[in-house]
Amino acid sequence: xxxxxxxxxxxxxxxxxxxxxxxxxxxxxxxxxxxxxxxxxxxxxxxxxxxxxxxxxxxxxxxxxxxxxxxxxxxxxxxxxxxxxxxxxxxxxxxxxxxxxxxxxxxxxxxxxxxxxxxxxxxxxxxxxxxxxxxxxxxxxxxxxxxxxxxxxxxxxxxxxxxxxxxxxxxxxxxxxxxxxxxxxxxxxxxxxxxxxxxxxxxxxxxxxxxxxxxxxxxxxxxxxxxxxxxxxxxxxxxxxxxxxxxxxxxxxxxxxxxxxxxxxxxxxxxxxxxxxxxxxxxxxxxxxxxxxxxxxxxxxxxxxxxxxxxxxxxxxxxxxxxxxxxxxxxxxxxxxxxx
Length: 340
Description:
Blueprint: E1 17-18, H1 24-43, H2 46-55, H3 63-73, H4 81-90, E2 92-95, E3 98-101, H5 102-109, E4 115-120, E5 125-132, E6 135-143, E7 163-172, H6 183-188, E8 191-196, E9 199-204, E10 218-226, E11 237-241, E12 256-258, H7 260-265, E13 281-282, E14 289-290, E15 294-298, H8 301-304
Parallel strand pairs: 1-6, 4-15, 11-12
Antiparallel strand pairs: 2-3, 4-5, 5-6, 7-10, 7-15, 8-9, 10-11, 13-14
Helix pairs in contact: 1-3
């Protein structure tokens, strides 16, 4: 496994952390596998293929060229030692009269042999962490975008919620397919015939993956986030975005945005066949969860008080806010990706 990171003086009893064992070659394999799957799904449906060639791949008219374009959009990287030491230092905060670490809290929630996600609000990066042999490896990092309104666990605040969450539902679509079925998505996006389950449905699609042609939307792949103060009815997601050019800064309407190829990487597996992320199940009341990859969202005190600059509109087509859940706690249209 990777080299052990230097210990923090404040965290003598902290879990053992390791640098990533990923190589540049393995990173390229992850990008290629994700891009190939997304492009194949598009090319296998003639209507979606024609739409993609008109909008996403005008300059990449073959599957190979389209895959290369998506690979270049990926932000996956192997974090360096200095970056990780700084990250761990910024994860420490005061709680109950003592210093605690948000990363340590996440590490304690990752089962052996599984993975968790850490969203660093300071740098707008998401880190994939894996636990093996009791040690926690910083596997990879990705650029993200959180709320332009800042941070808040209050309902309807528009801020990205902080603290420990779980992934509780998943919905996957074609590349660029709008997954939020709201009046906004019905009225603001073009419709494309999509074959699904023996039927052809008219589905909304974004017209670009990285330009402000359309309002910001939840596209391609989306995972619902649930926490003690973040019910599903709040509609906070980790998802692919049609505003990839906003990543690395606070632009979203409360969700955690990623590039489409990067969020699709998270739906894959490691070299052992273990899913990078897994979906949990809520009880009937929607107030307790079984399983699901843990997700810690944290920001340092200095960053929390900083106002985001005036940016582009942060509207996102989140599902309507209501408290009606199916008995299994999964939002309509969402499913457990780990069973596919």
